Amino acid sequence: MFLIKGGLSINRASLRKAKRKKLLLLFLVIIILLSIIYTTNKLFINKNIDTNQSSKDIVKLLKRNNPNQSHPRLLVSSEEFKKIKDQIKTDPNLKTWYERLESETDTMLNAPTVTYNKFDGVRLLPVSRMVLDRVLSLSLMYQLTGDEKYSKRAWEEMSKVADDYYFPDWNPKHFLDTAEMTTALAIGFDWLYETLDSNQKSTLKNAIIKKGLYPAQKVYNNTADSNEITTFWKETTDNWNTVSNAGIALGALAIADESSDTETLAGDILYKSIKSIKNSLQSFAPDGGTSEGPSYWSYSTLYMSYFLSSLDTSLGTDFGLSSLKGISETGYFPIYLDGPKGIFNIGDGSSSSITSTPQMFWLANKFNNPIFSNYGLTKGYNVMNIVWYRSNSTAKSAATNISLDKSFLDPNTGLATFRSSWADNGIFAALHAGNNQSNHGDLDVGTFVLDALGERWAEEVGSDSYSLDGYFDRGNSRWNYYRKRAEGQNTIVINPSQEPDQNIDAKASIIDFNSDPNQGYAVIDMTSAYKDALIAKRGIALTHNRQLVLLQDELQLKTSSEIYWFMHTKAGIEFTDNRKTAILSISGKKMYAHILSPSQAYFANLEASPLKNSPNPEIQTKNNEIRKLSIHLKDVKETNISVIFTNNKNLISSSSSPLPLSKWKKEKVLLPR
Predict the structure, then answer these.
(1) Rounded CA separation 611/13 (Å)
(2) Cα–Cα nearest to 643, from 603, 595, 604, 587
(3) Would you call 127 exposed, middle or buried from its count of C-beta atoms within 10 A (0-12, 13-18, 19+)?
């Protein structure tokens, strides 16, 4: 009995000892793993770590992931190129895009190379973009076919812009030009590496360094002469920051391991570009929207995708940049801002729908969200479609089952959109709050657009010429131009004068938003936009089972004032019901606008031009194809302006005065008669 008990005691002691050894071993493994993670990412874990050491860590990662100077490493790996070649044979989308690529590159073979030309005296950007398009297309065609006629033609283009005689610089005074040209040569250097001889590699490497990386390094180090190099992009949160950092980073990734000197330079560039680009990437928080609108979203996120995908393929990590709040959601921004007849083109954006969105395929792959791919498939050809599209992750149908309505609540963005369905000819209504100081922004708090029956009834007139004197002076001159003023938007103007007709520093916010199957609505507080207002609120609702749009303004003013309500349209305008109803017509289709309140209000049909007391620079663009539906009130201190829009005439007679904005509920916005 004693022996048995003793044996059991010995066994238990042995078990405890073995268990302690296992725990100790597990602890050591955890410590080692944490050490590896820390070493790999320490420049981001410890904010005070030495910059040079952090730069070296990035280069070590690059060399580890690309041994023996292996290429390609930007945007796509050699293994992925092989998969693309195989899928072209079986996937109809890839096959269609490949045929387009083949046709365009064959045309490029005989096209003359570019010349240094600042078309407007400021920008080389069209040239940079042409070079990028050609190099991307020709290099991709070489990767897919192995035919050296494409690589040779790409070299001709790149060697021309690398030559100091033909291109003394890449116009760092307008740094977007430099960034896009650097992107072009970086991709050409990387994708055609195996075809380039040592002299060709040296030529491209030196051009990337001299005309791209050195000017950028001066910006990062605060040693740039602002008369020669644009510098503001390092700190800003707009597309300039994203594009400039991304383009320069691709140049650094391409040539980093060419020599010890390039390792030092490229490591420094990459470390600082990663730090700088956080400024713009963080602006997508909290829900993926951007204050610059969908047109500039397209530009910015394309370069964001260039950068993040190249970090992944070159280094095996993007250092957590893609996990910043809003990045995984940003693909929803163009989906919701794109109506049946075009995008909601706030600011300097064009009303035309975004023509191509290859980044949606990258976003779909990165965040495993086929909805983004679905949207990408509804858009046109882009050479990067072929690179980022994945057959096995893309649904065959472009239909979506997502919510009909969406709000982007960041105070700088402030956008809400509503639709009756995802069908092409459904009703689409969108309202903007936002920040009047946003890059490319207008004095447009309260502006809206409206689509129905496959037509746009309420238009945003968009940009004027970027070459106009003071066009980007958001402190003064920009607000002299009609298309940038509140009177050039679909919003309210109070007591118009020569001065800006909204407060130029105004920020308006969405204070209420609701969406249910029968209706959706949003209310914005735009009081800060008007110096003469005590309260100024605007609500928009898609109601009556999503057949009717209500636009409602509630105004309390400091003194009796003059008020204008404006809506720009390309429709023909007729009036009935003592001018309380406007019949809008486009191509035989009709839309009805009807004033519910105030009782003394009526519509007018005005030219889309400055008011009598407004600035009227002669050189600005005329709006000859657009009219302005207007309501004009005088000597008003408090009012409620309510207008409904519908293509169903019967709904006008069945509607009465709406509820106050404070009482809008999801059950009813309009009270029945």
Answers:
(1) 94
(2) 595
(3) buried
At residue 427, the 3 state secondary structure works out as coil
- 320: exposed, middle or buried (Cβ count in 10 Å: 0-12, 13-18, 19+): exposed
Tens-digit pLDDT profile for residues 403-460: 999 999 998 999 999 999 998 789 999 999 999 999 999 999 999 999 999 999 999 9
Within 10 angstroms of residue 114's Cβ, the number of other Cβ atoms is: 18
As a three-state string, the secondary structure of 219-287 is HHCCCCCCCCCCCHHHCCCCHHHHHHHHHHHHHHHHHHHHCHHHHHHHHHHHHHHHHHHHHHHHHHCCC
Rounded to whole angstroms, how far apart are CA atoms 379 and 393?
17
E-assigned strands of 80-223?
A: none
Q: Give CA–CA dist 219/214, Å, rounded.
A: 9
**pLDDT for 661:** 94
Interatomic CA distance for residues 105 and 138, integer angstroms:
6
**Predicted confidence (pLDDT) at residue 600 exceeds the cutoff of 60:** yes
In contact, 377 and 400? CB cutoff 8 Å: no
Counting Cα atoms < 13 Å in the Cβ hemisphere of 367 gives: 23
- DSSP 3-state of 423: coil
pTM: 0.90
Q: How far apart are CA 158 and CA 135, in angstroms?
A: 8
Q: How far apart are the C-alpha atoms of 421 and 38, rounded to whole Å? A: 49
Distances (CA, A) of 528 to 287, 443, 533, 555: 24, 12, 8, 12
- DSSP E strand stretches across 409-505: 415-419, 428-432, 434-435, 448-452, 455-458, 492-494
**What is residue 459's DSSP assignment?**
B
What is the per-residue burial (b if ≥16 Cβ within 10 Å, else e) of 449-463? bbbbbebbbbbbbbb
